[in-house]
Amino acid sequence: MTAKKLVGQIHLWLGLASGLLVFVVATTGCILAFEQEIKSVLRPYQFMEPEVNKTLMAPSKLESIAEKLVHGKPAKGIIYGGSGRTAIVQFYGAAPDYYYQVYINPYTGKVLNVQDEETDFFHFILHGHYYLWLPETIGQSVVAYGTLVFTILLVTGLVLWWPKNFKKANRDKSFKIKWSAKWRRVNYDLHNVPGFYALLFSLLLAVTGLIFGLEWFSNSIYWATTGGKTIPEYKQQFSDTTVARQFIAPIDVVWQQLSKNKPETAGIYVSCPEKPSETISAYVNYVPGTYYKLDYYTFDQQTLKPIAVEGPYAGPYAKAGLGDKFRRMNYDIHTGAILSLPGKIVAFCASLICATLPITGFIIWWGRRKKAKKQSKKALAKPVSMKSDYQPVSRIS
């Protein structure tokens, strides 16, 4: 067996084994690519006209308003989305899972909507994309290793696609779809040609997905992009409960401090600690709608002294190293949001092509399988000519 035939066998059987998983993950990825754009239409209460000569309400007041609507559940954090956006008070927890978002006019305190995110369509699609709608502890590993298999399929697919030479006839077969051919040939071209054009973007989607799903892969990429550094082990930070609280509403003070120097379009997030030992987490988002260009802060809620935190998601974005910036960009690269709408269109098209590859690949395999069976039946039905090896010997008298 030649090396290319071996690659072909690997490509075939891995493709058949992972086809359904790739189809589901890629299809849900297509839908999630435009999640924010679709929600902006379905949830118009996310946006509002800025109020002239009015100041924004402090987070503690928004927290109090929202907690009256979500009975028995403490607020976890408050998002000020920037100019032209409403404020969002978040509630979430586990056992049982719940996730609510309360949209409030930050100038007047008027509640615009209470959204149960657990029943949201995109929440359902997200679970399919991350876990295949399986229990999270099982589904995450299934999707992660399925994505790893898909990465191997992309590489082996390139090997199989690569023409022996780049003469015109081979170039046409490799780079063009012959629409005038029979449907089997068109299907073959639909598997090879779009698959090649989307290869780079498909690999990018797969690699950024693997960073979320596989810890060893994530650590390896971080090591390679930071020049040999390792991701610091996560350490829970605590506020100093041995001193008296110096501020009546510490989250309001944090919000006021972060609001002083930020651009009008930037958003702010402030967490709402439940216990005296918890810290206040906050960030300034300079590009609302994305998650990479954030300045992260952690404060002691008693004294509001900054607490040093290590890792890629700590400190101002401008002071982060190249590898840490890349890690912060990972989600926005995965969704295409890093390049705004054009990037999302590219991510959508690449995901759509990835979704078609298992289908066209299966049709190719099934067609060849049926063809091989027909040829086998014809060979069995064909009459065999009986030629005797016996040669008569003339009798000598």
UniProtKB/TrEMBL annotation:
Record has Transmembrane as a keyword: yes
Q: What are the record keywords, sorted? A: Membrane, Transmembrane, Transmembrane helix
Q: Where is this region: Disordered?
A: 375-397
Enumerate the transmembrane spans: 12-34, 142-163, 194-214, 345-367
Protein name in the entry: PepSY domain-containing protein
Superkingdom field = Bacteria
Task: Mention any Pfam family matching this sequence.
Answer: PepSY_TM
Q: Which InterPro entries match?
A: PepSY-ass_TM
